[in-house]
Amino acid sequence: MAPDITYQVQRFMVDSGEGRDTDTEERRLIRRGAAEFIGMVFHGQTITHIDALSHYSWNAQLYNGQPANMITSREGAQTHSIELAENGIVTKGVLLDIPKAHGVNWLDPDRPVMPEDLEQAAELHGVSITEGDILLVRTGNYKMRLSEGANINGNPATACHVACTPWFKEKGIAMLGTDTSNDVRPSQYDKITAPLHTVSLVTLGLWLIDNANLEDLAIMCANTGRYEFMLTLAPLRLHKVTGSPVNPIALF
Asked: Domain containing 63 — which CATH number?
């Protein structure tokens, strides 16, 4: 449990090694394994996951004007499901390390990433963001969590500001991943709680990676002087689901 966890992950053992030494001989022959049940709500602030386009709607519409009521409580996501990525994703990844560009360990919770920050980091790292790339933006948020503990759910938090979305569209990126939950808190808009999610998923068709651990990657990029790499993501092969836990891997 931590103050930034909305729904606690559930785990219970359906079989274990306990009592094996006192089992009958017959029972020992059939009881050999250990196994558990794990249940989670991966959308939130702590689990690294992909948001499929079915995750958000605006005015009852999903991306490309599909009706939001195609996401049902009984059947799940009838359109825009994570299944589109079931064969995995392999493309060029680019890291923009915003704290490094500003000479700080992490961005303060009330300091969002703006388009000029992206430009400054890209120039510093000597990279070009091109169509089809997965853009990873480090804010240092995860490093701050490791150093200072979890930020209470609802407190101010940094992320890319929604003002960055025209920049994302211009570059033609395929996905955006950050070490945040991908929306500034508070949102700075009276009636929109998650503007970056809304514009990215509903308007741009831009998939999101939330809560990535970019710390080891940032160290590798700094040590090698390379901020471009091959990036692979393998979502779970889930049926009619709005996203998936994922473990992105960068290859140099």
From this structure: 3.50.30.50
